[in-house]
Structures are given as structure tokens and as C-alpha cells.
Amino acid sequence: MNTKIITETARKTLDGTMSFPEVVGQLLAAEVEYYHVDYVGMRKTFYSADGDAVVTPINYEGLPPVAADFDAAALRADILDSQRNNQPYRDFTRRAMEAGTQGYFAFLRGKRVTYFGRQGEQHTEWFPNAQTAPFTEQAIRAAYAKTKTGVDFPRLIRDLKALGIVSYDHLLETGSNIFHGKGGQSVSLSNMGPSVQVNPQPNLESLKKYISMHQSGQTNYPTLCGQAGEAGVEKWTSDLLAMTCTYFDKSGRKMHVELIPDGEYKK
């Protein structure tokens, strides 16, 4: 790797005198494959395909500590402000830390950036105009907009699979989803359902009753979320390859596994 180009690019990034597309071009020319930004250690580490590394400091003063809770919506707004309004990198850094981002990996050849929260939360952002992104927030939300009751769920799964999604987690207390793709990428989206209180005492029989009601079209998605929380469900994971939906309680124990049909639910 060309250490001089890397250190100069890192300096201009902090100074706000080089745009992100210019940064990517310079680092690729310096044979950087990816780099890691560490907001806890306040440093950047640049890696080559051969495993060589160059470390540069993030020498901003007066930055806040990394927030304990990861706010994907605030992070996304921060990213958009930089992309659309040329926000200074120092302001981007401050807002990312306030949103609970402990750091991120920028994969230059993979054309994506993956951000991490302190509890392992993730959000993946594709480079602007990257043609390899298999699914986007807009496409996901469009698929969900067509889902009215549980009768529509098998079709939703087919639509998500067509986007390249292989699984997703729904977190009831935050109302957010984490979608996972074939290439290992993941996207965290907020407001994918209501934020509901989760009963610490799981009730399997109630859960099965609520699922059956939803599958028959008696309830909509927000109602199911509230009922599942009442039955002690903290999250569910839909595996689009195994075609299963697995429900977990607050202790992380598996409560129930429901098969997802390829067609409609049986009457």
C-alpha cells in the first residue's frame, strides 16, 4: 500500500477538503481493500488485500461518547445529510457517535459501508449508485406496504426473497427489522412495526392462538405485534431459506417455530 497517499487522504477527510467519492478513488489507487473506523479508539485502520495495515488517528476534540443505544434512523439521516448536503465529516462523526455507532467498515471493492452499534446492531449502506445492491429500504418498504393481514404473509416472503433477502429479525420492543442478504450484508430499518411492551412471562398457548388468528386474516400486523408482546415474544426470526418463523422470549429461549407455506395458509 502507498502509506503517503493513505495518510494524506485520511488528513483531508478529517479536514473536510475531500469528498467521499474522491476518498474511495484515492484509497483504491493506494491498494486499500477496506478500512475500519473505530470511534472508541479514535483511529482508522486501512487494510490491503495482502493483510498489510496502516493506522491513522481521528484527532477531533470535544466529541461525545458513543451512545449506549443504536439509533438506525438517526444514523441514516446523518448519512443522507452527508450524501446530499456535503455535511462536514466532523459533524458526521459527532452525529454517528450520538446515534450509538461505535465504528464502521468501508469495503471499497464491495461498495458498501457497515456500521455497528455497541450491542452488535448493524446497518449497511451501499455506495451511491452502486449497482450491486440487491435490496434497498425503498424496495423493502414497498413490499411491506402490500401486506394487510396474515393472509398476505406468504406473498411478502416471496417478494423479500426476490430482493435477495435470506432472513430477517423483527424486534418487538423497538419495532425495527434487521434484514440479511445472500452476500452477508444486512440492513436495519426502524418503524417496521409498533414498539410494544414485552411480557416477561411467555405464554405459548396464547401465542399459537394469536398466530392462527393472524393467518386467517382476522388481525393486521400491528395487532399481531401487540398480541405477540403480550404472549412474551421479544423477537421473531424469519428464515426465508428454511421457510420458518421462530419466536423467542426475553431470555432468548425459543418459544415456537412456525412453517411458512410457499402458497396460501391452509383454511
| CATH classification, class level of the largest domain | Alpha Beta
Q: How helical, in percent, are the residues?
A: 25-40%
Instruction: Examine the secondary-structure arrangement and name the CATH architecture of the largest domain.
Output: 2-Layer Sandwich
Briefly note the CATH topology name of the largest domain: YdfO-like fold
Strand percentage:
15-25%
Cα(first) to Cα(last) distance is: 63 Å
Output mean pLDDT: 89
Q: Give the CA-based shape.
A: elongated
Total domain count: 2
What is the H/E string? HHEEEHHEEEHHEEEHHEEE
**Main β sheet profile:** 6 strands, antiparallel
Describe this structure in words.
By secondary structure, the protein is of the alpha+beta class. 33% of the residues lie in helices and 25% in strands. The strands form two sheets. Strands 3-2-1-4-5-6 form a six-stranded antiparallel sheet. Strands 9-8-7-10-11-12 form a six-stranded antiparallel sheet. A hairpin with a 4-residue loop joins strand 5 and strand 6. Helix 1 packs antiparallel against helix 2, helix 3 packs antiparallel against helix 4 and helix 7 packs antiparallel against helix 8. The radius of gyration is 21 Å and the shape is elongated.
